[in-house]
Amino acid sequence: MKPIRLVRGFVTVGGWTLLSRVLGFVRDALIAAYLGAGPAAEAFVVAFSLPNMFRRFFAEGTLNVAFVPLFAKKFEAEEDAKGFAENTLSVLTTALIVLTLLATLFMPVLVAAMAAGFIGDERFDMAVDFGRIAFPYVLFISMGALFSGILNATGRFAAAAAAPVLLNIVLSVAMVGAAKLGLPVDRALIWAIPVAGIAQLAVVWYAAAQIGFNLRPRVPRLTPELKRLLILAGPAALAGGVVQINLLIGRQVASFSEDGALQYLNLADRLYQLPLGVVAIAIGIVLLPDLSRRLQAGDGEGARYAYNRAFEFALLLTVPAAMALIVIPEPLISFLFQRGAFTPEDAHKTALAVMIYGLGLPAFVMQKVLQPLYFAREDTRSPFRFALYAMVINAVVAIGLSFVIGYLAAAVATTFAAWGMVALLWFGKKGMGDEVHADARLIRRTPRILIASLLMGLLLWGSEIGLSPVFELSRGLGTLLLVAIGIVGYFTIAHLIGAVRFVELKGSVRRGG
Q1: Which of 226, 329, 393, 483 is most buried, by CB atoms within 10 Å?
Q2: Using 50, 70 and 90 to split pLDDT, how confident is the model at 502?
Q3: Minimum mean pLDDT range among 87-96, 101-110, 264-273, 292-301
């Protein structure tokens, strides 16, 4: 077996994801500047959430969880991986076309399910109109996810990781161009979404064709392999559905709260999605095919090493990021979004949600490390069952606290549910064998990472006070200095107390270990 270069894969995917997230901040800063937290901004949030919600069913649910392990094992065993991929593409495309037509017809019902608080005001009609324009994005992005899965399973991560960058570029250019030409920015923004989906699909389709997987849709056939895929995909898609129900509950709570609440949660989500995307997405994309191929080859020791290094990598980057979101949320939000129609009061209310999401950030990332242990063994039922329990936690907390703390209840509920899901995944892996146990290196370094993160948090707290004169002169300069102090301080402390070894990390990247 030619192993996937694990650490190099993390760095490749994480690097491109970081660029995508940074450009995502540019996109959202433009949305905040042009649309503020007004009706058009909230209608856009709901409309764009709809194709993204179904994308998680078909792309992250069916493809990442069910298709990638099966394809990786076929590729490793040198079976007819291309034929399996073509048949999957045909079934997926057919289902997505039907879904798009139905969603266009029943868009008012979908918008009402997403934000019932919009009913009766201008936001509802605007969200329905926007939703019909944006929804075809799910067709292009889900087809693209299949090609991305092929690339990831064969150890080629760059093109699939780079494709999402196009979404933020296309949307940002559309807004700036519309503003310069005197056209409605909100219309340009929403029409840019399906255009971006076509661009993303084209990139991964071409990349897959270059390595011999130039797939062409054909008449779908219900082969034994496809039946197996559907059996695995069912619980995975249902688990994704549970996650979407959690998001729906949060949006419903926010839609009945104060004006602008949906935008506050949306921008807070964007900020915590930066470390979540860079670390968690990188781990989820790289670890699953690697574990699947190692288990197919009977390499239990290699599977244990991959799992432990993924966990270490997650903790090393996620815990300090969570600490920063908890300690300095307001400078970060103000720097990123406070301009134009987005006021200091809007920034403060968004920062409160960021703090709460920060408490849950390590849990969101740990899920991405633990779930591949199940999916690589073709067990999608256990994560689905655990997701149901997490959904109950989310619903009880969100609805119960909404009468006390308003829109912040959605963030609190998400955090509680995330930690509940981690606990269930952790204790549910007991019978999997030695490859899911922590090795000596992970046991030694975990408490040191926690200590380094706590010390960094104290450093950030003191530095924010010390830099107050700089913030008065320039909010941007003060925030950049604060971030630089946090990064340099954390890695210096981590190195001094043995939480990380730079020489060792550099060697891992070079070897691809």
Answers
A1: 329
A2: low
A3: 292-301
CB contact at 8 A, 149 and 196: no
Identity of the residue numbered 272: Y
Compare 296 and 166 and report the one with higher pLDDT: 166
Take residue 254 and report the two structure tokens written for it.
């926010």
**Distance from C-alpha of 488 to C-alpha of 410, rounded to nearest angstrom:** 33
Round to whole Å and give the CA distance between 264 and 267: 5
275 vs 278: CA distance, rounded Å: 5
What does residue 135 show for φ and ψ, rounded to 5 degrees? Answer: -60, -35
- Distance, in Å, from the CA atom of 388 to the CA atom of 392, rounded to the nearest integer, reads 7
| Block residue for tokens 């800063």 | 29
Q: Are 168 and 24 in contact (CB under 8 A)?
A: yes
**For residue 357, which of 384, 324, 322, 391 has the smallest C-alpha distance?**
322
Q: CA 253, CA 275: separation in Å to the nearest integer?
A: 26
Alpha-carbon distance 74 to 293, whole Å? 9
Q: Token pair for residue 490?
A: 């954390």
Q: What is the pTM of this model?
A: 0.70
